[in-house]
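From the methods appendix. Each design record in this collection lists the tokenized structure first, followed by the designed amino acid sequence. Records were kept in a plain field format so they could be parsed without special tools. The example shown here is representative of the layout used throughout.

RECORD:
FOLD TOKENS (256 positions):
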């Protein structure tokens, strides 16, 4: 029997048929263009260096919440909804306050939307989120017997829950291999030149084609603090970046 070789974890090279194929959508997996002084892009050492670089930064809110014992799928979905358009420094305390009061669908459904709104007021769009969370808790209690199934389609059937929240909640709570693309993951992976995509949705599609599955959940955990503190939206800290020798710095015009 012919020996099988492990698939490469490098971004596909320009001559690869996989790279040359027409993309299914707006996202593309590309071999970053060669640049003087840059090493070939290899996701293994890149993420290894980032893992070390973010050790001293606070975990992203949902991972921090799971570390405190709030690791059920329902709790993770609640936390993700609260985090939308809200900084972790605000959404994490709000999530803790709400879940300390009502950590199950039954308990949250017993609260009124007005009660929920009072607890989560620091987060962005708190009033709309209060009604949304109450509806999710009520439906989870009535339709699913109080326990959400580990099913992305079910989660995305709730109003306001998209792939980002569904994938991240499933990855943390259920161990599902799913990539969650927020603004940090979208910006950083495109800035590297690892993928080329205009939207987070297209970045998700492109990453699913090239990123080793072992990194699918961890990617968000690493790139949220990395994107907040190092590879920032404006004036990224390229001079002290641990992966500068691999990064193509796509779109960077003003760096520190």
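DESIGN:
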């Amino acid at each position: 029997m012919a020996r099988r070789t492990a698939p490469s974890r490098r971004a596909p090279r320009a001559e690869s048929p996989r790279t040359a194929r027409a993309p299914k959508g707006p996202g593309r997996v590309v071999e970053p263009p060669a640049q003087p002084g840059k090493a070939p892009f290899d996701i293994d050492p890149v993420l290894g260096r980032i893992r070390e670089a973010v050790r001293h930064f606070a975990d992203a809110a949902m991972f921090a919440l799971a570390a405190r014992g709030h690791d059920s799928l329902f709790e993770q979905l609640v936390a993700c909804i609260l985090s939308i358009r809200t900084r972790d420094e605000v959404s994490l305390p709000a999530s803790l306050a709400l879940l300390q009061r009502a950590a199950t669908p039954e308990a949250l459904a017993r609260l009124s939307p007005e009660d929920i709104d009072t607890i989560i007021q620091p987060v962005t769009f708190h009033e709309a989120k209060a009604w949304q969370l109450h509806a999710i808790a009520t439906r989870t209690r009535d339709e699913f017997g109080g326990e959400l199934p580990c099913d992305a389609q079910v989660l995305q059937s709730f109003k306001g829950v998209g792939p980002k929240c569904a994938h991240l909640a499933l990855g943390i709570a259920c161990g599902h291999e799913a990539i969650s693309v927020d603004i940090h993951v979208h910006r950083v992976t495109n800035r590297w030149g690892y993928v080329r995509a205009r939207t987070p949705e297209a970045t998700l599609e492109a990453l699913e084609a090239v990123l080793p599955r072992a990194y699918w959940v961890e990617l968000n955990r690493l790139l949220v603090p990395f994107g907040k503190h190092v590879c920032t939206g404006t004036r990224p800290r390229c001079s002290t970046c641990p992966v500068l020798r691999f990064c193509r710095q796509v779109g960077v015009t003003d760096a520190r």
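APPENDIX NOTE: Residues 61-174 form a domain with the Endonuclease III; domain 1 fold (CATH 1.10.340.30).
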